[in-house]
């Protein structure tokens, strides 16, 4: 009994560790070595040589844009001159919805509330210029400021883009050295900039896209995220993030919320058993097929982390290890197709119309169709069918309309017959199918108690 209690406690610790590593590891960047180097050198030159720069990080959500910046800051915070000579200002387009709010946040983050208090400024530009002037440390030497603008595209919607204009203007002129890092998921973000703003932007762009080029790398990442590390590995990881304590920014919270590996220590026997079982699972053919399906579905690291979090959450004392069955069961939820579920809920008559539409599309290379065309094809089948004989035209038309309401077929504007009143006759309104042949085939196979002759008709258009 005490042994079972010990195992349950160890499992609870493992679950907590894996969940925290999946959710609260904000600085571990995998891949993007060249992009990481470019951003690091840019920030380094701003801090050490007083160069002003601007750069946009562009990529889909979950690609690792913010993680790349966090990783660069973690490396640079080990550099004493960077810590002493640099201020970091973090703005988010979702929070700072106009330039006044953004400026107030800049003042607070640069700790200049007392200096600005009571002063009257004629314009936004004067206010910003004063804040930057405050950073002058005497002579030509001045502190560098790194502006990180999350959701950069939302700043483009601000009135006259005043904040962006002034930031880029300062980065172009020989004023206080600043570096503007914009983070966005919009590829057309440059087109959102006004002409005067665009002319002051350096046009440096770094594109990030999910980088799992080979399936073997994806499997290795899967294993890396679930392996339990040794004590020495935990200590070295803890030392790596010690530099985050030097980050003096109230707006950036990743340094305070980052999980600390130093508080974990695993029983060596449990750790070996866990890692051995994990390697065994990954080596199995079933797990490889499941991982291949996930890889085909989404190659991003963020998707894999979300998947693994759900997998780890299922672990219980009675089944403390990850198995191929758990992996397959969870992956099948991602493979579920809503359209197939919808088709399986149709009546037999409606499914027959879908099959008739499928045959028409196959023969005429996905040409548009109307009710009359499909009814003629259905009628041929109904004559030789025992289940569909005697179905009235009005009922078939109602079933056809039901398919349209469910958006399984979509009307095409401008391809219909118009009567004398200028209205389209619904029997002659042209449609296109919003399904793949594979979805229809799977629905026919999974449909409960489908008449054999209907299933056979689905395989061949010959009657």
What's the quick description here?
The chain has 463 residues and is α/β, with parallel strands linked by helices. The chain has helices at 2-23, 33-49, 65-76, 80-85, 99-109, 113-116, 124-133, 152-155, 162-172, 189-192, 195-198, 215-226, 231-240, 254-257, 268-283, 285-297, 301-313, 324-335, 338-344, 348-363, 371-384, 393-405, 437-446, 452-459; strands at residues 53-58, 86-92, 144-150, 178-184, 205-207, 409-411, 431-433. It is flat and about 90 Å long.
Structure, explained:
- The protein has helices at residues 2-23, 33-49, 65-76, 80-85, 99-109, 113-116, 124-133, 152-155, 162-172, 189-192, 195-198, 215-226, 231-240, 254-257, 268-283, 285-297, 301-313, 324-335, 338-344, 348-363, 371-384, 393-405, 437-446, 452-459, and strands at 53-58, 86-92, 144-150, 178-184, 205-207, 409-411, 431-433.
- It is of the alpha/beta class and 463 residues long.
- The strands form 2 sheets. The protein has a 5-stranded parallel sheet, sandwiched between helices. A two-stranded antiparallel ribbon has the order 6-7.
- Helix 19 (338-344) packs across helix 23 (437-446) and helix 20 crosses helix 21.
- It is flat, with a radius of gyration of 31 Å.
- The N and C termini lie far apart (69 Å).
